[in-house]
Amino acid sequence: MSENSIGNPLKKLRCVRCLLNAIDDKTALEIVNKYKADTPECDRALPEVYRQRLDTCLDCKYLERGVCLKCGYYVEARMYRKGGACPLKLF
User: Fold this and answer.
1) Residues 51 and 45: beta-carbon distance below 8 Å
2) What is the pLDDT of residue 5?
3) Whether pTM exceeds 0.85
4) Straight-line distance from the first to the last Cα atom of the chain, in angstroms, rounded to the nearest whole number
5) On the CB side of 65, how many CA atoms lie within 13 Å of its CA?
């Protein structure tokens, strides 16, 4: 972490995008599937809500290799939870 980021708490957060070059697509899928499997049933979005969210993400110019370039999360993981929200407030 650079000294310039010490005063800004947002700079201290690890960005998923930084890891994409270090892992292959299979590993990324395993990460997302584990996250989804570990999500308690009561915290999961309804399947139709999840699908609608993903459809919106698929049309977004900020989606790259399964990651939202605005928030840095794998969209298939973030949208899986009830509280999953778009950083652009598209839903």
Assistant:
1) no
2) 43
3) no
4) 33
5) 13
DSSP 74: B
Containing structural domain, residue 36? 3-78
The angle formed by the CA atoms of residues 22, 82 and 36, to the nearest 5 degrees, is: 40
pLDDT greater at residue 4 or residue 33: 33
Q: What is the DSSP letter of 9?
A: G
E strand or H helix that includes residue 90: none
Whose CA is closest to 75, among 38, 43, 31? Answer: 31
For residues 21 and 74, which has the higher predicted lDDT (pLDDT)? 74
Q: Is residue 8 part of a domain?
A: yes
Instruction: Please give the Cα distance from 80 to 77 (Å, whole number).
Output: 5
Q: Is the pLDDT of residue 4 over 60?
A: no
The answer to whether residue 27 sits within a structural domain is yes
pLDDT of residue 13: 46
Domain-located, residue 39: yes
